Sequence to fold (674 residues):
Amino acid sequence: MDIFLQQLANGLTIGSMYALVALGYTMVYGVMRLINFAHGDMVAASAFVGLTIYTQVMGESASLGAVVLIFLLSAGSMAVVGIILERVAYRPLREAPRLSAVVSALGASLVIQNGIMLIWGPRMRIFPELVPQVYWDLGGVVISLIQVIILLLSLVLMITLYLFVEKTRMGAAIRASSIDQDAARLMGINVNSVIALIFIIGSSLGAIGGLFIGLYYRGITFNMGWQYGLYAFIAAIIGGIGNIPGAMLGGMLLGLFNAFIAGYVSSTWSDAFTFILLILILIVRPTGILGERVAEKV
Amino acid sequence: MNRCIRTILAASAVALLAVPAFAADTLKVGVQAPITGSYANEGQGIENGVRLLAEQINAKGGVMGKQIEVIPCDDQGTAMAAAICAKDLVNKGVSMVIGSYTSTCAEAAQKTYFKAGVIQTSDGTADGLTEKGYWTFLRNSFPNSAEAEFAANYMVNVKKYQRIVVLSDFSTYADGLANAAEAAIKKMGGNVVSRDKIKADSQNFTPILTNIKSKKPDAIFFAGYYSDGGQLRAQQMALGIKADFIGGDANDNPDFVKLAGSAAQGAFIINVPSPDVLPYAIAKTFIADYQKKYGEMPPSIWGLMNIDGMRAIIHAMEQNKSFDAKQAVDYLHNLSEPLPGITGPIAFAKDGNRKGGAYVVKKIQADGSYFNEYVQ
Fold:
């Protein structure tokens, strides 16, 4: 039972990181019908930006304020990168065949990944211990402070996002644009600013995911975006791509699935099982768990 | 007459084309190393070291009048890129190859160098590297089996651990070291409660560590690289597994301590001595030169082992007064007494293994420095 609960805690921590990153994929897909392959690399870039802000700008002072500032600045700079990315790589291709946009996305991914390598070098960079190493032993299940922070902050962000999309006028504009861009335009919605907003939100959530990876695992490499991006992408598909609660659910499920497969079956086979799960879901429920598009009144 | 002139012109054109090839004759030294990727730190250390040694030899007039030309190739620490590097370096006509850092990459490239008759010297420690009978291969480090024997003796007879977990990744080096250690522990009457494998670079090791925790080990022996070792140690402590962590040689890198952070304290690492404690005069000068040129210490002893391999090959060529690869290797296989090296005396057995072995157990202190806890 200890082991089960411990794996559950592990899985939820990883799952919430996947979920944060998956939101970026799913939101962009929802409105633009485009897989933003550069998203994973922006997650990696955010970790490097955060580390640089810490070492260069803040002179390595570790305090709660410092950590909050790192999160805000990294998320802000990634939001800017997201807008630039959309302007440069996606907007010119909006009317082009979908394949062109996908190729452009892959290109953007390579540009960002190699950009990170050129700026920060090919070596693994290491995050300092910004969060104190505090552990609680709850009858055999050990939970660390950083795990609690990751889980709680992710939940707060996801609930806020859900409420924003469901309850506000701007959220309604996002939902409308995702159903029919032309109709939304006719209703007086500025689809371009909706798309910019999507990129701002998606990129900053991804940025926070990237910082979590840095804070939790400490080691970051220029090409790690590919791995996390792929997992988050799978999470988005499992939950139903284009669906915001689906990405959250998919991320959590994938995290738990990975932890349990690695714990009970084999850690070396966990990737293989993840892809088998993906194939099964695509066969049985191609739209993902929550992905069924029902007629919606906006 | 016309035809005669044409013939002369053609002949002189051929001669002109041929001459520069002789004039620009250099001794080409290939460097196959992970210059990018997870082991970039080590790969760059090897390349830097080779360039420094080449510079020093060239300043003294080169090798028998030939200047050394360094040709690097980045194998990224992956077998696939290593195989491509091997073909590339052979095509560029190198007469020896220094590297690679990982056994996996050295192994992937071995056959190509053997077929081309190019001497390869690597610090790869997997036993399998010298078991194929390739005369072109010279190991400049000590094989895994020597380290495994030492580690097992330390754990079973010195520390008297009762429940040992042996952990490795899937690489040629790590798997070989872990298997040898497991066999040696069992032979000495020790108790291996689990033999597990991780996927290198997967970052999240908590699922497998949670399983390990349930086996209540008092020691975890990890054969693998520092980039995983540091994270394993951090996650081990985060899960409250109160076992000693004993890392194999490839954990010996400053990044291990940085990755593990405050959890690094108390971890043990088994390795040959680190560069700064090498007692040999030749080591002190070379490291001083290295620091002067690059502004930092060599990342680890592995780069220096490779430099020793290169020095031995060049020494053999000079003694033979020939650039012939086979003769140089024969000379090194039959040294009457070991050559002085940066990392200690160098001599090679007939199978290409470096003779000898000297290991230390280093305990990581609170400030991240090493304390030599046990010396062979």
Confidence is low (pLDDT under 50) at residues 16-23 of chain B. Residues 145-271+359-375 of chain B form a domain with the Rossmann fold fold (CATH 3.40.50.2300).
